[in-house]
Amino acid sequence: MRLFLPLATLVALLFIASLTVGSTAIPVGEALRGLFGGDGVVPMVMQEIRLPRAILAASLGASLGLSGAAMQGYLRNPLAEPGLIGVSGSAALGAVIALQYGIAGLFGLALPLMALLFALLAVLLILGLAGPRGGSLTLILAGIAISALAGALTSLALNLSQNPYAVYEILFWMMGSVADRSMHHVALALPIMAIGWALLATTGRGLDALTLGEDAAEALGINLRALRLRLLIGVAAAVGAGTAVAGAVGFVGLVVPHILRPITGAKPSTLLWASALGGAALVMAADILVRVILPTKDLKLGVVMALIGAPLFLHLIYKTRREMN
Amino acid sequence: MSLLTLETLTVRRGQCPVVDGVSFQIGKGELIGLIGPNGAGKTSLMRAALGLLAHEGRSSLAQMRASERAKLAAWMPQQREIAWPVTVETVVALGRMPHRPTGAKLSAQDQAQVDKALDRMGLTGFRDRAANALSGGEQARVLIARALAQDTPLLVADEPIAGLDPAAQIATLRVFRDLAAEGHTVLVSLHDLSLAARYCGRLLMLDKGRLVADGTPAEVLTEGNLATTFHIRARVIDTEHGALFQPIDVLP
């Protein structure tokens, strides 16, 4: 609880910053007033460009952070991340197919809907492959197989593409971004992500018990099958919907729980909500950086995230190694 | 009153039965040692009895709902796992999970049980240490304390004293004996037959999945049983300090 207030404040501040930083210079007061109505350019920029962008950055970050913490808790492995079950790879494949075959141009939300459809297929496939009672190992293996397949099919689509424009679009989409999204994107993704959050929020007790291993957790009264089902569907909904509207953004689900684990006392249930807030803060910060560093170059969020995430991760490894000695 | 009843409990791995038609009853206030050579089926028997392993036959505990069972029986598996750098107190408090609703804070009664368990295992000074940074033996004591904090009528522990130093081994068995005196029942698998002979009121001897002897240490640890089950020659000597078990040689 000591941590809740600082993290929530950070998220709130970054949300306001995300609303007030952009290519058009708008004074803070006028920008915030613009959110709540009025005519002219400022309310339009605020309500139709910056607000959906800030909401998507925050909810995508929360989804990735929460899912990362849940996956790490379930697999009892600090290297687990939401992409492990193959949902984000499959969602990306759906988007690539939509771009490649012109489905994306049919109507506004065709691309995210295709991505969602493929994310759903991936979940059904992983539930089928990993079986109702399989342990965490079969889950990891099934996830790797599905990710590899989705990756291969994505490459195949690029390989066979005869349309250089589509290839260009696909490459940029895959780098991940929350820029130029509308409130329609928010309306599509946010309810699905919220379902995922709600499901993942119920896993805290089970994840705490799993600290002692699967056998001990079951003897503590945890139904492991139900836990796994809630976890898989929760991660798939949160990450699938996030990837569908924003493309692939890596490292958040891996790095955020890592940073927060020592501060939260490492208890998996505490780490869940802390990572949700931390993820929201990190993605919003990166999305602000994208706009500040190279405002004219359309720098992609996923690229900046990896550039921030990788050195952070290296630092953590270095710190862990020093503590061991 | 019976805490656990097994009727022709059988566990198969493929076609081969690893636990073979085992039946017994466990009442209140007993410290029971489960003994047998490696691969005799001790772990499988305990896991099946707790409903953690698919089986044939009947176990009264396995038939209950998981959440109800967790209030009646605590389980300490052989694999000592503490996945995260949580504090010792946090690990021990996990034992209170079956007794409190989701999200609820530890009640005063929960905290009292946690403190008692820490005290019993001599861990009060370790309360705020990171549990996974402790030595193997210390972690074992933390996990025993975790099972104690569950405060169940039945405690089932799989080789809880393996890897402990002699003082901690004896201290742990004394804690179990005190629990039995308070009316709890402890079912514990052991490889140290001397300690089994000294502290357990009743021994169950398993061999190739079958229950071959059930009774007091003197009734179970006979020269004949030790020869056929453990393939050792050994004596149980009555001394002023109680029964002493002395292995003498391996039989060909």
UniProtKB/TrEMBL annotation, chain A:
<feature type="transmembrane region" description="Helical">
    <location>
        <begin position="83"/>
        <end position="103"/>
    </location>
</feature>
<keyword id="KW-0813">Transport</keyword>
<dbReference type="GO" id="GO:0033214">
    <property type="term" value="P:siderophore-iron import into cell"/>
</dbReference>
<keyword id="KW-0812">Transmembrane</keyword>
<feature type="transmembrane region" description="Helical">
    <location>
        <begin position="137"/>
        <end position="162"/>
    </location>
</feature>
<feature type="transmembrane region" description="Helical">
    <location>
        <begin position="301"/>
        <end position="318"/>
    </location>
</feature>
<dbReference type="GO" id="GO:0022857">
    <property type="term" value="F:transmembrane transporter activity"/>
</dbReference>
<dbReference type="Pfam" id="PF01032">
    <property type="entry name" value="FecCD"/>
</dbReference>
<dbReference type="GO" id="GO:0005886">
    <property type="term" value="C:plasma membrane"/>
</dbReference>
<comment type="similarity">
    <text>Belongs to the binding-protein-dependent transport system permease family. FecCD subfamily.</text>
</comment>
<dbReference type="InterPro" id="IPR037294">
    <property type="entry name" value="ABC_BtuC-like"/>
</dbReference>
<feature type="transmembrane region" description="Helical">
    <location>
        <begin position="49"/>
        <end position="71"/>
    </location>
</feature>
<keyword id="KW-0472">Membrane</keyword>
<feature type="transmembrane region" description="Helical">
    <location>
        <begin position="109"/>
        <end position="130"/>
    </location>
</feature>
<feature type="transmembrane region" description="Helical">
    <location>
        <begin position="231"/>
        <end position="260"/>
    </location>
</feature>
<dbReference type="InterPro" id="IPR000522">
    <property type="entry name" value="ABC_transptr_permease_BtuC"/>
</dbReference>
<keyword id="KW-1133">Transmembrane helix</keyword>
<feature type="transmembrane region" description="Helical">
    <location>
        <begin position="182"/>
        <end position="200"/>
    </location>
</feature>
<keyword id="KW-1003">Cell membrane</keyword>
<protein>
    <submittedName>
        <fullName>Hemin transport system permease protein HmuU</fullName>
    </submittedName>
</protein>
<feature type="transmembrane region" description="Helical">
    <location>
        <begin position="272"/>
        <end position="294"/>
    </location>
</feature>
From TrEMBL, chain B:
<keyword id="KW-0813">Transport</keyword>
<protein>
    <submittedName>
        <fullName>Fe(3+) dicitrate transport ATP-binding protein FecE</fullName>
    </submittedName>
</protein>
<dbReference type="GO" id="GO:0016887">
    <property type="term" value="F:ATP hydrolysis activity"/>
</dbReference>
<keyword id="KW-1278">Translocase</keyword>
<dbReference type="Pfam" id="PF00005">
    <property type="entry name" value="ABC_tran"/>
</dbReference>
<dbReference type="InterPro" id="IPR003439">
    <property type="entry name" value="ABC_transporter-like_ATP-bd"/>
</dbReference>
<dbReference type="InterPro" id="IPR027417">
    <property type="entry name" value="P-loop_NTPase"/>
</dbReference>
<dbReference type="GO" id="GO:0005524">
    <property type="term" value="F:ATP binding"/>
</dbReference>
<dbReference type="InterPro" id="IPR017871">
    <property type="entry name" value="ABC_transporter-like_CS"/>
</dbReference>
<dbReference type="InterPro" id="IPR003593">
    <property type="entry name" value="AAA+_ATPase"/>
</dbReference>
<comment type="function">
    <text>Part of the ABC transporter complex HmuTUV involved in hemin import. Responsible for energy coupling to the transport system.</text>
</comment>
<keyword id="KW-0067">ATP-binding</keyword>
<feature type="domain" description="ABC transporter">
    <location>
        <begin position="4"/>
        <end position="233"/>
    </location>
</feature>
<keyword id="KW-0547">Nucleotide-binding</keyword>
